[in-house]
């Protein structure tokens, strides 16, 4: 599956905030992840989340708890190929995954950077996430983006990745040439405003 392209035959990859209508597609996405990827994402053996679980993952309003999805569009159809979530309160915690078939193409980096940008817009000062200590891939990626790697005391199975965000800075939404920033507004309140217009 190609990530790149702007002609009619090659799908375009878009990062945007998830909305309630994405729940079924997100559920299929989680169901299609390899066991290993799901294990790393949910820090253990996990069944495919139910639609109720998915709605919690998507969050209510896109503000204090939000989910970014990476989608590929084929005409009117879309396929989710990655997701990243952030819970701002009480402290900003993150988790993410990328479809096995497109890992290593830069999507994980783009998702993590978009979380940083959105969390900073929502006044978060720091991001952290718990990973399995065997998960070299996310450890390397996080380190390359300036995260520190901590070992919680007495816990040899997990690591915590952590990064301070610049105070009150608006980090621009950055995307690789493969990604088009979504036309959706990203600021706090954006989803509520969009729901009000619908
Ligand atoms: C971790 C994950 C999200 C990374 O997504 P990705 O799209 O593959 O990541 P990218 O393509 O952006 O790669 C980013 C970096 O990872 C590192 N990387 C890639 N493949 C790697 C490998 N096999 N081993 C170690 N590091 C690797 C590289 O440093 C790469 O940087 P580069 O772009 O400078 O080469 C993805 O592997 C995944 O979904 N894993 C399962 C779920 C998971 O582990 N989630 C994290 C915990 S919540």
Automatic annotation (TrEMBL):
InterPro entries: Acyl_CoA_acyltransferase, GNAT_dom. It comes from Tardiphaga alba. This is N-acetyltransferase. CDD domains: NAT_SF. SUPFAM superfamilies: Acyl-CoA N-acyltransferases (Nat). Residues 13-168 form the N-acetyltransferase domain. PROSITE patterns: GNAT.
């Amino acid at each position: 599956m190609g990530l790149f392209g702007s002609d009619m035959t090659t799908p375009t990859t878009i990062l945007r905030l998830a909305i309630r209508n994405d729940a079924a597609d997100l559920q299929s996405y989680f169901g299609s992840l390899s066991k290993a990827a799901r294990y790393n994402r949910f820090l253990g053996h996990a069944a495919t989340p139910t639609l109720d679980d998915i709605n919690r993952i998507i969050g209510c309003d896109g503000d204090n708890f939000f989910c970014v999805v990476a989608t590929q569009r084929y005409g009117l159809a879309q396929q989710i190929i990655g997701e990243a979530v952030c819970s701002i309160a009480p402290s900003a915690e993150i988790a993410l995954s990328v479809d096995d078939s497109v890992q290593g193409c830069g999507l994980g980096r783009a998702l993590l950077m978009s979380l940083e940008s959105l969390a900073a817009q929502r006044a978060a000062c720091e991001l952290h996430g718990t990973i399995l200590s065997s998960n070299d891939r996310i450890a390397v990626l996080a380190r390359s983006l300036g995260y520190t790697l901590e070992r919680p005391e007495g816990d040899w199975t997990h690591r915590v990745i952590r990064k301070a965000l610049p105070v009150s800075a608006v980090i621009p939404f950055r995307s690789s040439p493969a990604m088009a920033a979504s036309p959706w507004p990203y600021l706090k309140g954006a989803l509520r405003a969009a729901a009000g217009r619908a």
